[in-house]
Design goal:
Blueprint: E1 23-28, E2 31-38, E3 46-52, H1 62-70, E4 74-78, H2 92-105, H3 109-114, E5 117-127, H4 129-140, E6 146-150, H5 155-164, H6 169-175, H7 187-197, E7 214-220, H8 228-241, E8 246-252, H9 262-276
Parallel strand pairs: 3-4, 3-5, 5-6, 6-7, 7-8
Antiparallel strand pairs: 1-2, 2-4
Helix pairs in contact: 2-4, 5-7, 6-7
């Protein structure tokens, strides 16, 4: 299936129902998580893409959500506990718990029916810590068909790095120090949580649980946060060796936020989704 020109072309204006952008909320551990759902025009039911942002969440990938909506996908952007005014406290464990809760909630019958969603077709996509979260969430839920990690942060490998040379802890303390948009945490607590989790948060170790999934890994070649030789290349090698049969990987010559590769990222992601999780024929343009 060829991907339509969703980047520069709005969907046909006579498609009904029309596209909508409702604010949505989910309950997770007693806290209300807020999100924005980008629902395509047309009757659907539309496949769903849950977008997981990184730490602390300055880049929330709304450009991907809007483009994927035009390409026929209902795309959700949401905030985890303890971030950007959401109640509760931030931790890596809470991020994983909240992502698991949201990916379950969007497939609940009432929610799916209200927003014309197909609960049988779900992808999880994440950037940085969100990339880690996407892979961990998919590995724990065999019903998630497609997963994509962009500049994913490998906590297991980073924890091993600290064990190998405790002097490197200062690098991670600096990396985890930007907690201004977050509540209930700090760099030392986040580093201790990563070290305690250790190898259980290794992305390479997820290979046996992703063998039957479509997996997209995008690395970044000019990145001082998740440099590809450390965070991307070993994961690709592990998945190919296992093997993960429907693995696709790229390294783009760009920074951590893919600042000058947003169009290429969008096209790569949409093409991957169209091949492995095609949209409803009645809800796409082109």
């Amino acid at each position: 299936m060829s991907v339509p020109d969703f980047l520069m072309t709005d969907p046909a204006p006579d498609l009904t129902p029309a596209a909508t952008t409702p604010a949505v909320a989910f309950q997770s551990a007693g806290e209300t998580l807020l999100g924005v759902l980008h629902v395509p025009a047309g009757p659907g039911p539309h496949p769903v893409v849950v977008l997981c942002h990184g730490f602390p969440g300055y880049e929330r990938n709304f450009d991907l959500a809007q483009a994927l909506r035009r390409a026929g996908y209902a795309s959700l952007v949401f905030h985890y506990r303890g971030s950007w005014g959401i109640g509760g406290s931030w931790s890596w464990t809470h991020v994983l718990e909240d992502a698991a809760r949201v990916t379950t909630a969007v497939r609940e019958p009432d929610f799916a029916a209200a927003h014309r969603l197909d609960p049988e077709r779900l992808a999880v996509v994440g950037h940085s810590v969100g990339g880690f979260t996407a892979l961990m969430t998919a590995a724990a839920d065999p019903s998630i068909a497609v997963v994509a990690s962009v500049a994913g942060f490998d906590f297991g490998r980073a924890a091993a790095d600290c064990r190998a040379d405790p002097a490197r802890r200062s690098r991670y303390l600096e990396l985890f120090g930007d907690v201004a948009p977050l509540r209930g945490t700090g760099a030392e607590a986040l580093l201790a949580e990563m070290e305690e989790a250790g190898d259980s948060w290794s992305l390479a170790g997820l290979a046996p649980r992703l063998t039957d999934r479509a997996v997209l890994l995008v690395g970044t070649g000019r990145d001082d946060v998740t440099p590809a030789p450390f965070h991307h290349d070993p994961v690709v090698s592990a998945y190919r060796a296992h093997p993960v049969g429907r693995l696709e990987d790229h390294v783009f010559p760009t920074d951590h936020g893919l600042s000058d590769h947003r169009v290429r990222l969008t096209r790569t992601l949409a093409d991957f989704l169209h091949r492995h999780l095609p949209p409803s024929p009645g809800g796409i343009d082109g």
